[in-house]
Amino acid sequence: MATKTTTSVGLRERKKQKTRTAIREAARRLAAAHGWEAVTIERIAAEADVSPSTVVRYFPVREDIVLTAEDDDRLEALLRARPADEEPLESLRAVLVEAVGSALVAAPDDIRLRARLMAGAPAVRARLADTTAETGRRLARALADRTGRAPDDLEFRVFTAAVLGALREATLHWAEHGLAEDLTVLLHRAVDTLRAGPARPARP
Known about the structure:
It is a single chain. The protein is mostly helical. The protein has two domains: 4-60, Arc Repressor Mutant, subunit A (Orthogonal Bundle), CATH 1.10.10; 66-196, Tetracycline Repressor, domain 2. It is 75% helix and 0% strand. The chain has ten helices and no strands. Helix 1 (4-34) crosses helix 2, helix 2 packs across helix 3 (52-58) and helix 5 (72-80) runs parallel beside helix 8 (122-147). The chain is globular and about 55 Å long.
């Protein structure tokens, strides 16, 4: 039987998650309607029915409201679950394609908005570089653990940064071309380019 303390902790955590979700949804509605530059902390707070200090407490960096999906744990778990003898590029391809595909099914409007903001709001794109770097370090450690190499192995850091950069560029291309293409197909193309280089144009 759950104790009173356990129950109260559970209630607090659910309340926190509800507040985080309300802030995220408010920021996304405002960004979709008015553009990112118009999305101030005060407007987010009013839309979410919380105080500005609450918004800042949950999201000290404003851009994280629309960027962070708190899925680094899931990405790392997916990568560690891949076969140990699988080629690292194929492991990362599988993990990222699965994550992107799931997100497109679960929250397609959020993914499209995030892509548009990445393409059109320099502050969002700059913050993305910071958050992607931490994701890359975690994935690099997971890959390095397969071989017994150091957690901060340079080659694995460069490798994972390149693959995540390919995902970023595929997403930007998607946004810059009206979100009309299949993002997972673009991601496969980007990873294939890392393997073989750009395809040569056909000769006339």
